[in-house]
Structures are given as structure tokens and as C-alpha cells.
């Protein structure tokens, strides 16, 4: 229902675009505002609910335009309970370690591979690029059963390194894809000049190419981090009470007496902060990174 | 940014003895990790689908059953209906997101005030953890205290049991996905529009094409490669959806939202049949890869050569 | 919960079984009833009895002082009450307790994963009665009797005969009649904690204003539903209905009183016969006259709609006792009356809920046993009940002080008589049937499909699964 009125607005906006500029501008501004509100409303509800107690959340009589729907006395009780009770800090630390380490590893390995795929012709190039593309398509649920057995036999089940290895592996195909697009846009003349000066391929790569694709690294990094930070189903199977990550902990709060909405939304806000922060800081790079693979040339 | 891709050129000249190994030094670490921790598990899933292995029992007690599970798979009405649900879900969300994203990208093509801010705001949902997306929308769609029913009551429609009705629950899950991923399509296509050759646009304008004609005859054809890649990416992700459905409906009511990934999860953990779950995984994998290969053949982003 | 009397007011009611001789007698009798082997009975009668329980208790725990045990517990009101007592256990015994609290639905997945490792995370697992067959078949949990018979560990005042027999049988026994009932070969694998039966709760205020009496039969109940909806301006009765375990649970609550069963004695499906159709049709009426959204209600949403004042009748687990009296969770405190789960062809209420067991791959089995024994002792069962958890001992249910706090325990005492240990078949395959076949069929019946067609549609898949599992060879 949320999207239906938006859809009408959209078509109206598109159809009107040949009208005199002012009408078009107003309509487009309106479209922008409506889409922005629709986009933000669920996040707004999540944010405000995290400051409500249970009786403020269950308002049987409240309608959308009533005062009590929008105005309430905020409480920090949910945040206090989330941060003080239980092992939330342990899980937050786990998520940070897994997210940061696997992101760095993924970027390092992927950028090297993407460089080779973009710049060299070599035996096996086709196989590797096709393999990485196909692995990009694997739904994570497919990995759940085999990975549980394999990780255990390797002795890395329930450990953070085990989770880091897995997230690195499933993220590499995606990161190669994004970084390839960026590397392909670097003028090869620069590298040729470095090579003429006698620099080794590695030196050329680190000194010349890497600085030029920093925005790409930022974009790929955010997306890779997003997966490692938000992933649930594999973490559920591969962690124990010591190595559990935040999404698994959030799911644990869906209790048998219903969802503790205030607490869950407080956790949702907390878990959303790092990726949202990165996104706001690097929105431009992010958009460039997303489209680099597709929009090149 | 318009230089031809180096990879389209002939290989670098071979001067140093190391050179032939160099590409492999670059590529090997990533490949190794991918093969060991991603490809190997995928192949293992294939192998497991030939074994009757019950969760909680040691692997040594698993019984080789041959291709029996695939026979069962072909006749299992639950799998068939789940496959149909998956395809319907993927088709619905991808088509809706592509159309919405495209219309939005075309409507907001010209620079205007607030656009940058809007684009930033618009990509935020993509960053939210699927588990939280599921919870948020379950909350919004809640019959008794959800914001959507609060609005419905206000406009006189009354309370609607969104998640308790097979069609409405499917709709609700679709809405959550559209909310999260339409921005992605918009960003991709908007960037594509920006990169279109300005000269061609001007020529079209000089020829007296209306904006409407320009869209159909010039912009869309030129945008096609990006549309295809975006479609591919969305398609892949649509088959990956699990958490949002798990949290919002758990596959219900009935099995109206039981997409394959959900069905695999239930077969493995509620049913405890790891082997059969693997066989269904192979089916899911085949569907996704099959569709992807078709799309990749149309436009391969890592291709050595360039296509129109 | 502020109006609770201090704990000193609530002492375990003295019973005849406090006398060691009498206790041995009772225990032997109960064990025979349970169908335990004669060897086990012999072992249990050789338990030494010390006159000074305290001295013995400290020696029991001394060896395990400083160790840590890890519990897998569900996010459930009973365990929210129990968890408040863990610190006391550590004070008394020196054994540390760490609880891993997970949503029930996912708890089993996690337990299975942990218990299939060489050395798992858990020393105590909380299981739902329906999981016991699967856990035992896969050799994942330990038999209890060796611990109960171990003089160095067992508490002579434990008095297993005080545990409500239906609960003990339903939750603890595996290997007897049909594999899950008492009888030759039955062995004890777990002890109840969070055991439950079904009961009816209703809004006294609404019933009074409509001049209705709490229904005693399904006929009365069914006739009442539209009246409450029309005149009471409230959903008549709440129910679980969410696709999967919850829908089936709601169905079973009515199937049993209507005289139906899931399988006959030869494992032939009979759930689709007349009582089943009647039960599902009754549920359809509940959906039509109840609070909105029943087909998406799990236990939480179901009980919440009652607690938030959107339904006048509740027929489900006694787990509602605590939350209904808790102002932070309930808008209807003081307005709730309790009565027997109504009768149709017969009285038949649920048995089930949670039990505690020791994983075979635990490293601290003895300490784990000591914890389970402590938590399920008379004293602690009473403490949990006082905190709003589920009582599982006869002595607790009969306790006068507790009854002053929760008058409904008088009803519970009566209700327990009708608790049916064969409420649903607890075979290892149950969860696969329950979640993937029955739960979906019943839910389809609640969302538009004809009752008969919905149940009939499940017969084929159920028969297939049972055939594959070897029940018809």
C-alpha cells in the first residue's frame, strides 16, 4: 500500500516532464519529497519505537493522525536494557572484528585479483572470471549445510576466524566485480610509464593504480562490510555464545511472548549505525562503486 | 573515462622471466580463498544431496542414496509450490523494482536542488540488515498496532490482517523488498543516464523528438546494457532473500510465502533432513545459475571484449 | 509483581513423602507405574538416606565448586522466572551458571548443531516434549536414572513421585509404549521444567456484563463466540494460527477434547476424520469471531491479544498465569478468571512444555545434573511458580500460600487430571510432520480453504513421510 500512491505520482511526474518547466519542477520536487518520505518512514518508525515502552507501542485505539501516534515521551530504557543486560557488548565486539577484518582481507585479495583480470591475459583467466561470476550468484542458504560440516572438521566452527574466512570467500566475487570496473577506468599509459622506468608489476600496482582507485575501494569496502556486518543465517550456524554476532543476537529477542519491539528496534538502530555512517560519509563513492562495473565506458 | 579497456588489447610484452607468473601471483590468493571456502562448500552441497544424513547424527552414519532425492524432488508438491512461489516472488519484485527505478531515474534525470541529498537518503534502506528490515516491516504491517493499519483505520478502511492472508502476506513481503531495493535500481540507471553520450541526446532534441520519443527511441536502447546488468544483480539477490521472509511470515500463511531458501532452511533444521535440503539447494542453485548465465551471455561485466 | 509476599511465607507444603520410608514406597510405586526397569527400581531403593540433609548437600556440590555449566534456555516466561534464581544456585553450590537464551523456534536448530559436535557448548538443554524422541534416537542426550541413582549426586529429598505424573511421562520418558508413553522399555531422559497443560482464561468483567457463565462444553463455547463478538465489542476468543507449529498446536487443543487423534494404533492417519474436521471448523469460527490476525498468531501474538484486551477467551498454556498478573505486560490485571478447558466428547487437556536434559557431549554432566535436580526440587519449583513460572510438582500446586497468590491453582489441580500424555504422537518424526505438513494444512484451513479439503490434502504427504520412516513395514 505504501508504494501504490507513489507509483501514481511517479507516472504523473514522468508524463508531465514536457510541460512548461515550472510545473515540471514542482512535480519533480513533489516526487522527490514523496519518495524520500516513503523511503525514510520505516526507518523513522524503527528509530522512534526504540524510544518507546511496551504500553506506548501497543496503542489499540491510536489512528495515524492522532496525536499519540506521533507524540510520546521518549525513554532510554530500551537502550539501557540492551547495553547493560546480557552480553551485547561481547556480540558487538565480535561483529566489529568480523566486519573489519574480513573487509580488509576481501579488499586486499580482490583488488589484486581484479587488477590481474583487468590488465593481463593469462591462462586460466577465463575460468577464474567465470568462476567468480558464478559464485557471486550462490544463495547463502545453499552454503549453510555443507559449511557447518566442513568448518567443524577443520576445527574453525564457532570461531571468529572461521566466520571471517567464510565472509571473505563469499565477498571476493562481488568485490572483484566492483573493483574491476574501477581499474578498467585507470588509463593504462600511467602503468606503462612506470614499467618503462623499471618498476616491478607489484610496485606499479601499489604506487600507481591503488591510489587512483581509492573511491572504488571505499565503495567496495562499504558493501563488503555491509554483508559481513549484517549476515544472519551463516552466523547462526557457525557461532556459539562466545562468537555470536549482532544479527543472531537480535533474532534471539523474538521471544515466545511476542517480539520485544522496543528492545529489538533499539538493537536495530545500534546495528544500523556503522553502515549508515559509512554511507553518509561516502555516498558519492558508494554510488560510483555500485555503478562502476555496469556503467563503464 | 572513455579509453578502450586495456584488457581488450593484446597482452603485455614479455620481458622479465617473472612476468608469466605475475598474473598468477596477483590472482592466486583470492582464487585460493574462493575455491577453498566457497566453491568447495558448493560442491559439497552437491555431494550431500546423494546422502541421507539427518541433523544431529555423525556424518559417518549418513547413507548413500544415489539420485533418489532428485526423484523425490521432482514429485514433491511442496518443492514445486515453493519453486513457483520463488519464481513469482523474484519476477514480481524484479519487475516492480526495474519499472519503478527506471521511471524514477528518468523523472529525476535533470539536475535539481535536493537531488544529491535525496540519493543519499534513498540508498540508506539498502544498508539495513535484512533481519532488521524484516522486523521493521513486520511491525509496520502488524494487524493491531502497525502504522499501516493505523493509517487504514484513519482513512476508514479499517484493520487489515496483512500477514494472516495468503495474498496480502505475499504482497507485504514484496513491498519490503521493493522498499529496500528500488533505490539500487534507481542509482544504477540514473548513473547510466548520466553517462549517455550527450551528443546523441542533443541530436535527438534538434531532430525535434519529444522527451517521450527520446526516451523510447534513444535513451532506453542506449541504456540497455546497464538495464541488463541491473536486472541480473537484482535477480541474483531476489533468490537470496531469506531473513526478511523468515521474520515477517515464516513462510506462511499456509505456504504462500515459502520461497525455496525458506523451504531449504526448514527442511534442514525443522525437518532435520540435511541430504534432502542439499538436493533442494542444488535445484535453487541450478535455477539461479541458469538464469544468470542467460543474462551474463547478454552482457558480461568481466568480459575481455566489449559489446554494444 | 510488587504485591508478592516475601519468600519466607511460602514454604513447601509438608507431605507424607518427607518420611524416607514412605518415600521409598511411593517411589517404587511410581517407577512401576512409569514402566521403568526393575534394575532401576532396585538401584533407586539402595539410595542411602542421611538424616542431616545440609551436610550431605554440601558434600554433593563440593567436588564441582568453581565449575561453570552452560544452559540452553528459551526466551519464554517460565525461564524468565527461573533465570532469576540462578544466582542463588551459584551462592549455594559454587557452581557458576551461564544461560544462552534463544527463541524457542531456533533453539532446537542450535541445540542440534551443538550436540552433533565432538564437544558442544551446552551442559543442560531445555527441550520441548516433542523433541525427546528425536534426541534419544540420535543419542544426543543422557539417561537420567543413572544420575538419580547415584548416591553421591542424588538428593534424598528430591521425591520424583511428587512430579505430576503426566508431565514426567510426557516430557521425560522414551522407549515405552508407542515409543513415548509409559510401558516396558521406557527410560527417563529429562525432568520437567516449564511443563504445561491447557486451561481456559476468560474476562470476568466482560462475561459479567454480558451475563454469561464460563462455558463448560464446546457447544456452549461455540454458541457464545458470536454473542461476545457482537455485544461485547471485542474479539471472542484468541488462538494460535501461524503457519507451522502454532497452527497445529491450536488444532490439537480442540482435536483432543473432540475425541480425535492424529494417528490410530497402527500409525494410520486419522486426523482428517470427523473429529478433526469438527476441530478445524471450530477454529474457523474462532478466527471469524476472534481478534483480527489469528492466522498469523504465534504463541506470543495469541497471548498478547488477550493480555492487551482484544479477546475475551483464551484456551492455551498455563504460561499465561504470570504475564496476566504482571502490570507491565497486561492491561487486564485483576479481570481474568480461570476455568477448565471445556469438554466436547471428553475432557482432554494438553501435556507438554519444556524439560531439562543433559547432552551426551557435555563436559560437566554431574554438575549439570546437580543443577537440574536443584531447579526441579520442591523448594525451587515453588519459587519459580511464585515468580510466575509453571509449577510441575503436586506439592506446589497444592501449596496454600501459592494458592492465595494465584487462586487459579485450584483449577489447575483439577485440570491436571485431564492432562493427556498421548496428546500428540511424540515420535522422532513429529517436528517434520508438525511444521512442514500439518502446520501448513491447518493454516490453509484458517485462510480460506475448506476444512475437510485442507486436512485431506495432508494425508498423502503424511503417509509418504511415515512410509519413508518405516512405520508401515
Task: Please explain how this structure is put together.
The complex is a heterotrimer of chains A (297), B (308) and C (473). Chain A has helices at residues 3-15, 21-49, 54-57, 67-70, 77-84, 88-119, 125-135, 140-153, 160-184, 188-196, 201-212, 214-230, 233-238, 246-251, 261-281, 283-295; strands spanning 254-255, 258-259. Chain A is mainly alpha-helical. In chain A, helix 6 (88-119) packs across helix 12, helix 9 (160-184) crosses helix 16 and helix 12 packs antiparallel against helix 15 (261-281). By secondary structure, chain B is mainly alpha-helical. Chain B has a two-stranded antiparallel sheet. The longest helix of chain B has 31 residues, at 77-107. Mean pLDDT of chain B is 84; it is low at 1-17 and 304-308. With 473 residues, chain C is of the alpha/beta class. The model of chain C is unreliable at 1-25 and 37-52 (pLDDT under 50). Classes of the chains: A mainly alpha (297), B mainly alpha (308), C alpha/beta (473). Chains in contact: A-B, A-C, B-C.
Q: Estimate the strand proportion of chain B.
A: under 5%
CATH architecture of chain B: Orthogonal Bundle
- CATH-derived architecture of the largest domain in chain C: 3-Layer(aba) Sandwich
> What is the average per-residue confidence, as pLDDT of chain C, rounded to a whole number?
87
Determine the CATH topology of chain B: MetI-like fold
Query: Structural class from helices and strands of chain B?
Result: mainly alpha
Could you say which structural class the secondary elements and strand pairing of chain C correspond to? alpha/beta
* Proportion of residues in helical segments of chain C: 40-55%
Task: Describe the secondary-structure layout.
The complex is a heterotrimer of chains A (297), B (308) and C (473).
Chain A: H1 3-15, H2 21-49, H3 54-57, H4 67-70, H5 77-84, H6 88-119, H7 125-135, H8 140-153, H9 160-184, H10 188-196, H11 201-212, H12 214-230, H13 233-238, H14 246-251, E1 254-255, E2 258-259, H15 261-281, H16 283-295
Antiparallel strand pairs in A: 1-2
Chain B: H1 22-48, E1 51-52, E2 63-64, H2 68-75, H3 77-107, H4 115-127, H5 130-140, H6 147-154, H7 166-194, H8 198-206, H9 211-240, H10 243-248, H11 260-270, H12 274-298
Antiparallel strand pairs in B: 1-2
Helix pairs in contact in B: 1-12, 3-7, 3-9, 4-7, 7-9, 8-9, 9-12, 11-12
Chain C: H1 20-34, H2 38-45, H3 53-62, E1 68-74, H4 77-82, H5 86-93, E2 96-102, H6 104-115, E3 124-128, H7 132-137, H8 145-148, H9 165-172, E4 173-174, E5 187-188, E6 191-196, E7 198-203, H10 204-209, H11 218-232, E8 235-238, H12 245-255, H13 274-289, H14 299-307, E9 311-317, H15 321-324, E10 336-339, E11 352-357, H16 365-375, H17 378-386, H18 394-397, H19 400-405, H20 409-416, H21 430-446, H22 451-468
Parallel strand pairs in C: 1-2, 1-3, 8-9
Antiparallel strand pairs in C: 3-11, 4-5, 6-11, 7-9, 7-10
Amino acid at each position: 500500500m505504501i508504494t501504490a500512491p507513489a507509483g501514481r505520482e511517479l507516472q504523473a511526474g514522468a508524463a508531465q516532464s514536457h510541460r512548461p518547466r515550472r510545473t515540471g519542477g514542482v512535480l519533480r520536487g513533489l516526487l522527490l519529497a514523496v519518495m524520500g518520505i516513503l523511503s525514510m518512514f520505516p526507518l523513522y518508525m524503527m528509530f522512534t519505537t526504540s524510544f518507546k515502552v511496551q504500553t506506548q507501542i501497543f496503542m489499540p485505539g491510536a489512528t495515524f493522525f492522532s496525536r499519540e501516534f506521533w507524540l510520546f515521551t521518549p525513554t532510554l530504557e530500551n537502550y539501557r536494557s540492551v547495553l547493560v543486560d546480557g552480553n551485547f557488548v561481547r556480540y558487538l565486539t565480535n561483529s566489529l572484528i568480523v566486519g573489519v577484518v574480513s573487509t580488509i582481507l576481501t579488499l586486499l585479495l580482490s583488488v589484486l585479483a581484479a587488477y590481474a583480470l583487468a590488465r593481463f591475459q593469462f591462462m586460466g583467466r577465463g575460468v577464474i572470471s567465470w568462476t567468480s561470476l558464478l559464485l557471486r550468484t550462490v544463495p547463502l542458504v545453499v552454503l549453510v549445510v555443507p559449511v557447518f560440516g566442513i568448518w567443524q572438521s577443520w576445527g574453525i566452527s564457532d570461531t571468529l576466524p572461521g566466520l571471517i574466512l567464510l565472509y571473505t570467500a563469499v565477498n571476493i566475487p562481488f568485490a572483484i566485480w566492483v573493483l574491476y570496473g574501477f581499474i578498467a577506468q585507470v588509463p593504462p599509459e600511467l602503468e606503462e610509464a612506470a614499467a618503462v622506468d623499471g618498476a616491478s608489476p607489484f610496485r606499479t600496482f601499489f604506487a600507481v593504480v591503488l591510489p587512483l582507485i581509492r573511491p572504488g575501494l571505499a565503495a567496495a569496502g562499504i558493501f563488503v562490510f555491509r554483508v559481513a556486518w549484517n549476515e544472519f543465517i551463516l552466523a547462526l550456524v557457525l557461532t556459539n555464545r562466545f562468537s555470536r554476532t549482532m544479527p543472531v543476537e537480535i533474532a534471539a529477542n523474538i521471544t515466545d511472548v511476542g517480539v520485544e519491539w522496543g528492545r529489538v528496534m533499539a538493537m536495530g538502530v545500534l546495528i544500523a549505525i556503522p553502515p549508515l555512517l559509512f554511507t553518509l560519509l561516502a555516498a558519492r563513492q558508494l554510488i560510483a562503486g555500485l555503478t562502476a562495473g555496469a556503467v563503464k565506458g | 573515462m572513455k579509453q578502450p579497456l586495456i584488457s581488450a588489447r593484446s597482452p603485455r610484452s614479455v620481458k622479465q622471466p617473472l612476468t608469466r607468473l605475475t598474473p598468477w601471483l596477483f590472482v592466486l590468493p583470492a582464487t585460493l580463498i574462493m575455491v577453498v571456502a566457497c566453491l568447495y562448500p558448493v560442491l559439497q552441497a552437491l555431494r550431500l544431496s546423494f546422502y541421507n544424513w539427518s541433523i544431529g547424527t555423525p556424518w559417518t552414519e549418513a547413507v548413500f542414496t544415489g539420485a533418489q532425492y532428485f526423484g523425490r524432488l521432482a514429485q514433491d508438491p511442496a518443492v514445486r509450490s515453493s519453486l513457483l512461489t520463488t519464481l513469482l516472488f523474484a519476477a514480481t519484485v524484479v519487475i516492480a523494482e526495474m519499472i519503478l527505478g527506471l521511471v524514477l531515474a528518468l523523472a529525476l534525470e535533470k539536475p535539481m536542488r535536493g537531488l544529491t541529498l535525496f540519493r543519499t537518503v534513498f540508498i540508506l534502506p539498502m544498508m539495513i540488515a535484512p533481519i532488521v528490515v524484516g522486523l521493521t516491516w513486520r511491525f509496520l504491517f502488524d494487524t493491531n498496532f502497525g502504522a499501516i493499519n493505523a493509517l487504514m483505520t484513519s482513512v476508514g478502511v479499517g484493520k487489515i490482517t496483512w500477514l494472516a492472508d495468503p495474498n496480502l502476506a505475499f504482497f507485504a513481503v514484496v513491498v519490503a523488498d521493493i522498499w529496500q531495493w528500488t533505490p539500487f535500481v534507481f542509482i544504477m540507471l540514473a548513473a547510466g543516464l548520466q553517462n549517455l553520450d550527450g551528443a546523441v541526446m542533443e541530436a535527438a532534441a534538434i531532430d525535434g523528438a519529444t522527451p517521450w520519443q527520446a526516451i523510447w527511441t534513444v535513451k532506453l536502447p542506449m541504456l540497455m546494457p546497464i538495464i541488463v546488468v541491473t536486472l541480473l544483480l537484482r535477480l541474483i539477490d531476489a533468490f537470496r532473500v531469506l531473513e526478511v521472509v523468515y521474520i515477517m511470515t515464516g513462510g506462511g500463511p499456509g505456504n504462500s510465502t515459502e520461497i525455496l531458501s525458506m523451504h531449504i532452511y526448514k527442511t534442514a533444521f525443522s525437518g532435520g533432513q540435511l541430504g534432502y535440503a542439499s538436493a533442494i539447494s542444488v535445484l535453487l542453485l541450478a535455477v539461479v545459475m541458469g538464469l544468470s548465465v542467460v543474462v551474463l551471455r547478454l552482457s558480461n561485466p568481466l568480459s575481455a571484449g566489449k559489446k554494444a | 509483581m510488587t504485591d508478592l509476599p516475601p519468600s519466607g511465607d511460602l514454604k513447601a507444603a509438608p507431605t507424607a513423602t518427607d518420611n524416607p520410608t514412605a518415600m521409598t514406597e511411593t517411589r517404587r510405586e511410581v517407577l512401576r507405574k512409569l514402566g521403568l526397569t526393575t534394575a532401576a527400581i532396585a538401584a533407586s531403593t539402595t539410595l542411602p538416606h542421611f538424616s542431616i540433609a545440609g551436610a550431605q548437600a554440601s558434600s554433593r556440590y563440593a567436588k564441582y565448586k568453581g565449575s561453570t555449566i552452560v544452559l540452553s534456555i528459551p526466551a519464554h516466561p517460565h525461564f524468565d522466572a527461573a533465570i532469576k534464581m540462578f544466582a542463588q544456585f551459584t551462592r549455594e553450590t559454587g557452581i557458576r551458571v551461564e544461560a544462552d537464551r534463544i527463541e524457542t523456534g531456533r533453539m532446537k536448530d542450535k541445540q542440534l548443531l551443538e550436540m552433533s559436535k565432538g564437544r558442544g557448548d551446552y551442559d543442560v538443554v531445555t527441550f520441548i516434549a516433542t523433541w525427546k524422541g528425536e534426541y534419544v534416537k540420535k543419542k544426543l542426550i543422557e539417561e537420567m536414572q543413572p544420575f538419580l541413582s547415584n548416591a553421591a549426586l542424588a538428593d534424598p529429598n528430591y521425591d520424583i513421585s511428587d512430579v505430576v505424573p503426566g508431565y514426567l511421562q510426557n516430557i521425560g520418558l522414551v522407549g515405552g509404549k508407542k515409543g513415548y508413553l509409559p510401558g516396558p522399555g521406557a527410560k527417563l531422559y529429562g525432568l520437567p521444567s516449564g511443563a504445561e497443560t491447557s486451561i481456559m482464561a476468560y474476562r470476568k468483567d466482560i462475561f459479567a456484563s454480558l451475563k454469561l457463565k464460563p462455558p463448560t462444553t464446546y457447544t456452549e463455547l461455540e454458541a457464545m463466540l458470536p454473542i461476545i463478538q457482537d455485544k461485547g465489542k471485542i474479539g471472542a476468543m484468541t488462538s494460535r494460527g501461524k503457519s507451522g507449529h502454532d497452527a497445529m498446536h491450536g488444532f490439537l487443543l480442540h482435536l483432543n477434547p473432540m475425541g480425535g487423534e492424529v494417528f490410530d494404533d497402527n500409525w494410520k492417519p486419522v486426523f482428517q476424520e470427523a473429529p478433526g474436521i469438527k476441530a478445524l471448523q471450530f477454529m474457523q469460527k474462532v478466527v471469524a469471531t476472534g481478534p483480527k490476525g489469528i492466522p498469523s498468531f504465534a504463541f506470543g501474538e495469541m497471548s498478547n491479544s488477550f493480555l492487551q484486551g482484544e479477546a475475551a477467551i483464551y484456551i492455551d498454556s498455563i504460561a499465561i498465569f504470570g504475564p496476566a498478573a504482571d502490570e507491565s505486560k497486561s492491561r487486564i490485571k485483576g479481570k481474568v478468571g480461570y476455568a477448565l478447558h471445556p469438554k466436547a466428547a471428553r475432557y482432554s487437556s494438553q501435556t507438554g512444555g519444556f524439560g531439562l536434559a543433559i547432552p551426551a557431549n557435555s563436559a560437566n554432566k554431574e554438575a549439570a545434573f546437580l543443577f537440574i535436580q536443584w531447579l526441579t526440587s520442591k523448594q525451587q519449583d515453588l519459587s519459580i511458580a511464585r515468580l510466575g513460572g509453571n509449577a510441575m510438582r503436586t506439592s506446589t500446586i497444592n501449596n496454600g500460600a501459592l494458592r492465595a497468590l494465584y487462586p487459579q491453582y485450584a483449577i489447575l489441580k483439577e485440570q491436571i487430571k485431564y492432562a493427556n500424555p498421548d496428546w500428540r504422537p511424540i515420535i522422532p518424526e513429529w517436528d517434520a510432520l508438525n511444521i512442514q505438513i500439518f502446520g501448513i494444512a491447518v493454516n490453509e484451513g484458517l485462510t480460506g480453504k475448506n476444512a475437510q479439503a485442507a486436512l485431506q490434502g495432508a494425508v498423502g504427504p503424511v503417509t509418504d513421510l511415515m512410509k519413508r520412516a518405516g512405520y508401515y513395514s
